[in-house]
Inverse folding.
């Protein structure tokens, strides 16, 4: 995975978030304050505007730039959380102009740990972690078992999709949705859904690359 691919992934994520803005907002309307899609679309629009300035940067600097743009433009919980995720992934990729499958997995792991630290959350609390954590575990064990990144990521996307379904069955204990207690049951978590979109988009770009 080279710098050009990373830039294509970021661009594709920005496009997917914009396309799914209304749906993400609808999900957040049910268990939050109805701004998740709007928040993320604003953030990724800022990222898109910064893309030309990323052209000659290494992968670490690009991911850091994405994180910084998200933190400074996205209101709500998801801005600092996704911002931290991209910045932590950026730290791991510092100075690199290409990533092996292992390095990609390490960057995802760092991103997840950033979300956990920043949000003081763990898996099973009906957040983005319920998509990201199963995806990471599946990707890592796929790579460890000898799969290439595309195949491991395809399995990871399936695991994330299952994680999104799982969020319907649990009560939120972090974020705004936790105010609803058992009334959060039956609803799909918006952040887990946007995380799934990011992983899906990454897979699509890698398949096309
Ligand atoms: N402490 C947390 N840790 C991890 N993810 C969280 C946390 N709090 C909220 N989230 C995620 O953020 C999403 C809501 O994002 P958003 O609507 O943009 O922010 P806000 O809840 O401030 O309006 C939730 O669906 C959930 O996935
Ligand atoms: Mg919200």
């Amino acid at each position: 995975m080279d710098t050009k691919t990373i830039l294509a992934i970021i661009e594709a994520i920005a496009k997917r978030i914009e396309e799914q803005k209304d749906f993400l907002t609808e999900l957040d309307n049910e268990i939050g304050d109805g701004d998740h899609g709007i928040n993320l679309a604003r953030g990724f629009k800022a990222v898109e505007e910064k893309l030309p300035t990323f052209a000659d940067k290494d992968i670490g600097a690009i991911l850091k730039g994405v994180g910084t743009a998200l933190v400074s433009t996205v209101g709500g919980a998801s801005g600092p959380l996704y911002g931290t995720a991209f910045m932590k992934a950026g730290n791991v990729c510092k100075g690199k102009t290409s990533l092996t499958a292992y390095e990609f997995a390490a960057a995802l792991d760092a991103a997840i740990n950033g979300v956990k630290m920043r949000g003081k959350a763990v898996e099973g609390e009906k957040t983005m972690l319920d998509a990201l954590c199963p995806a990471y575990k599946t990707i890592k064990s796929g790579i460890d078992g000898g799969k290439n990144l595309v195949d491991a990521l395809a399995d990871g996307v399936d695991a994330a999709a299952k994680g999104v379904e799982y969020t319907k069955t649990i009560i939120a204990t972090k974020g705004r949705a936790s105010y609803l207690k058992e009334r959060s049951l039956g609803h799909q978590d918006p952040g887990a859904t946007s995380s799934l979109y990011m992983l899906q988009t990454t897979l699509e770009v890698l398949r096309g690359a």
User: Anything to note?
Assistant: Residues 28, 32-33, 35-36, 76, 176 surround magnesium ion (ligand 2) (CB under 6 Å). The chain has nine helices and no strands. The longest helix spans residues 36-54. The chain has one domain: 3-208.
